Amino acid sequence: MLKIQKMLVGAMARLDETMVINLVKQGLQMGINPYVLLEEIRLGTDRVGELYSKGEYFLSDLIMASEIFKDVLALVNQDRVVTAQTLYPTVIFGTVEDDIHDIGKNITTGIMRYNGFDICDLGVDVPGQKFIEAVELYNSRVVCLTGLITEAFDSMKNTIDLLEEAGLRARTTVIIGGLVNESVRKYTGANYWATDCTKVIELCRNILVTNKRIVQSS
Ligand code: B12
Fold first, then answer.
1. pLDDT of 140-199, one tens digit each?
2. Which of 78, 97, 169, 179 has the fewest C-beta atoms lying within 10 Å of its C-beta?
3. Structural domains of the chain, ranges and CATH numbers in brackets
């Protein structure tokens, strides 16, 4: 790993905004993939979360972490050309009910749009019924759910149950992301889980182009 990347993790964990921004600028000038830089910053936010859990950081520090992340995203997106033409059917995306974390969602939808996916982003704290309405409206085959707090797992499950009740489950693939794992996938009934936002591109291509669902090995 390059020195710059290691330094990014530490700078984010210390919430040193000036340092984070300078390192990102340097990284971009060196031609490092922006998403590699974002991933290091994400690792730094994990450290922020740990310190918050231990009572060493406070809510204001979580807010600071999200502000730094937003500034970095703005910097990274500054010179990006948005893909004009979308290549695939609409993917429905949202942070589930009771949860307002949206940084990971915004990064993932950004990457997907850049790769030619049309995204209907429902925002944060989205009630299950809104996802159902969007699936019906866009005739979508993929729903992506973000959740970072424990309460989000029930909201994800509820959303998937509602898809079932509406008779839409069989034709809809549900991918969950955020602070999730295989146990959460099983609990919620989702088809896939991912914490690496780049994986979603391959998954969605398989589903939308070849109409193929692969069995997830975690
Ligand atoms: C920043 C932050 C906040 C910000 C959020 C700002 C925002 N606009 O998003 C603010 C300050 C608002 C906040 C509030 C709260 N937070 Co908070 N927060 C965080 C923190 C530090 C970082 C989260 C983050 O943005 N990470 C960076 C992004 C890039 O990572 P990511 O979301 O995981 O996304 C990546 C992947 O998961 C993936 N991805 C994301 N979505 C999807 C979807 C799909 C389909 C796919 C494929 C991939 C994918 O792509 C991304 C890039 O790789 C985490 C700590 C942590 N370890 O995560 C705590 C954390 C999530 N928060 C926590 C808590 C407790 C709270 C509060 C309850 C605090 C409070 N007392 O009020 C509230 C909850 C509010 C609510 N109802 O949602 C806990 C949750 C614990 C739990 N298990 O429930 C954590 C884990 C901190 C901790 N260790 O205690 N928080």
1. 999 999 999 999 999 999 999 999 999 999 999 999 999 999 999 999 999 999 988 878
2. 78
3. 3-77 (1.10.1240.10), 91-209 (3.40.50.280)
